[in-house]
Amino acid sequence: LGNRKNEHFLALVRQEGVDVYPSTVDLIRHVRGLGMKTAIVSSSQNCAEILDAAHLSDLFDVRVDGNDIGPGALKGKPEPDIFLEAAHRLGVDAGQALIVEDALSGVEAGRRGKFGCVIGVDRDGQAEALRNHGADTVVTDLGELDCQDDHPSQDFTESAISYLGRIVPTKGKQLAVFLDYDGTLTPIVARPDLARLSESMRATLIRLSRVCPLAVISGRDLADVQSRVGIETIFYAGSHGFDIAVPGKAHIRFEQGTEYLSLLDETEKELHRRLSAVEGCLVERKRFSIAVHYRLVELSAVPQVKEIVADTLHEHMQLRLSKGKKVYELQPNIDWDKGKALRWLLKALELDRPEVTPLYIGDDVTDEDAFAAIRGEGIGILVAESDKPTQAHYRLNNPDEVQRFLHALAERLEAVIE
User: Fold this and answer.
1) Residue 417 φ then ψ, to 5°
2) Pseudo-torsion of CA 65, 70, 76, 81, nearest 10°?
3) Which helix (H) or strand (E) covers residue 306, if one does?
4) pLDDT tens across 28-51, in order?
5) Could you count the other beta carbons within 10 Å of the beta carbon of residue 318?
6) What is the C-alpha separation between 178 and 373, in angstroms, rounded?
7) Beta strand 214-217 with 235-238: parallel, antiparallel or unpaired?
């Protein structure tokens, strides 16, 4: 929990009867001491009286309660209205706000409202359900949270190679490694079809796959990334996690968003037609998304590409826009990303256990969802030539360093197993 200069996070706490949780009160007092604004959101019309009776009214800058809910007014949970109203009264955007909730409907409301972070409090043994409804992190008590006077993302990351000793698990523990493809296993190139995996990198991945579970999560089509990596024994997620294949005895195949395929077909044709006159612009259709690459477009024509993509998106509100390195990508507007795909894979592979530490390596904006999904229980490594705000713990400069790291990791894991 934390805030950056000129930026606030919003703690939204659900009031349950007259019970007071000391750890919750301590947390609120602490974050207020860090300069954060706080609000309480409740479905009860007696919220003010309860707070006064518990001598807690001074803890909140804003209150939105059952008196604000009703016909012609705000909708209750799982709609996000009351949370969005609280953020509005505090003068912050939902993306800058943090919600603390113990109810499934409240967690879902946070997800629907696109809040920056949703913390689920598991008081009834429903941790998995809280995650499924949209919780980014689940705790049994708010005393488990580590509150720091920093934004959850960090601007400085240490070299993963230098700290390899911290990353390699001790005996009895296990790593599960997840990798992006473009910019991580291969350098960024002018055209996506030119990104080929080197034989030395492939050999390193094969070696690593023998000592730990290994998966590639890519923005490419599933079949494309499978053929480019060419290792049958590892796991793959394509289209930013919309299309997942798990080899082995179960032969599990998971697809998210199949009902959007006809809409994507229509949108692809429209983008081809409207962007055909822009020299260097490439429209790439994937099964569950459409990528508009503008790396080869003249700088003066980039605003035109941006405007056409924005207009097309406005006409197809069932799609959403994500941005990468010189690429705009249109995807189904559903709650699914690389982070959700990673968590699904952990569960499908029966790796969501305390003794297993997930490790994810990626280079792009979409990889931040994966870093965030395992923050607190796993290890994120950003591939970038210089430091930048990230949810990752460590950094590697480029795909060459990624290969060096993975090679050294395989050696260390082999030694641990022996």
Assistant:
1) -65, -40
2) -80
3) helix 302-315
4) 877 776 667 899 998 888 888 888
5) 13
6) 12
7) parallel
The helix/strand/coil state of 328 is strand
Q: Is 369 known to be catalytic?
A: no
Contacting residues for 250 by C-beta, under 8 A, at least 6 apart: none
Write down the number of H helices and E strands in the chain.
Answer: 13, 19
- With H, G, I as helix, E, B as strand and everything else as coil, classify residue 371: helix
User: Facing residues of 74 across strands?
Assistant: 69
Task: Report pLDDT digits (tens) over 193-234.
Answer: 888 999 999 999 999 999 999 999 998 889 999 999 999 889
The CA distance from 15 to 18, in Å, is: 8
Supply 195's token pair: 């990104």
Catalytic residue among 65, 180, 224, 364: 180
Burial (CB < 10 A; 0-12, 13-18, 19+), residue 302, is middle
Closest C-alpha to 46, from 15, 71, 21: 15
DSSP 169: P
Looking up tokens 């941005």, which residue turns up?
323
Residue 278 has what pLDDT? Answer: 94
E strands of 173-317, at which residues?
174-179, 214-217, 235-238, 243-246, 252-255, 282-286, 289-293
First-residue to last-residue Cα distance in the chain: 40
